[in-house]
Design goal:
Layout lengths: L1 H16 L6 E2 L9 E4 L7 E4 L2 E10 L7 E9 L2 E5 L3 H4 L17 E10 L7 E10 L4 E12 L2
Parallel strand pairs: 3-9
Antiparallel strand pairs: 1-9, 2-4, 4-7, 5-6, 5-8, 8-9
């Protein structure tokens, strides 16, 4: 219960400081979310401050029923595409649903949050970050991409 209360306060605080961001669709016609909000980012490229966490809120309509949801993040910088490894607790999207829980139903309106660390060791580069929500059958429920750059705070 305490974890939920802290998450709710964080989401409300972030929502008051942000507005929906226009993001890029992902390849292969994967479903695009209805709304994406990133703290401190109202236009691209988003500035990712070393040593901070980026808070995201994502709203989408589930195209499939699913038992479990996971976040997958891929970054492309300097011509190299590589997975961005989220800690297991952050990658488990079911832990971060707001107002619903897993399993989810087809057509259900889903709101979820995600916190991604920007480590102090990251190079100062421009990159594209792609975030996907996938289910246990690796079907994509939502996917978006943002242009970003890592900066010193």
């Amino acid at each position: 219960m305490f974890r939920f209360a802290v998450l709710l306060v964080a989401v409300v605080a972030c929502a008051s400081l942000t507005e929906a961001l226009v993001t890029h669709p992902c390849s292969n016609n994967r479903p695009h979310p209805t709304s994406v909000t990133l703290t401190g980012c109202t236009q691209m490229p988003c500035e990712l401050i070393r040593g901070s966490d980026i808070w995201m809120e994502l709203d989408f309509q589930a195209p499939f029923a699913a038992q479990n949801l996971q976040y997958r993040v891929v970054a492309t910088a300097l011509g190299i595409t590589a997975p961005y490894e989220l800690p297991p607790d952050r990658a488990a999207a079911c832990n971060w649903l707001v107002g619903s829980q897993c399993p989810i139903s087809q057509g259900e309106d889903i709101s979820s949050t995600l916190s991604m660390p920007v480590l102090p060791i990251y190079p100062l580069v421009t990159l594209v970050v792609e975030v996907s929500v996938i289910d246990e059958e690796t079907r994509t429920h939502a996917c978006f991409a943002v242009d970003a750059r890592v900066v010193v705070g």
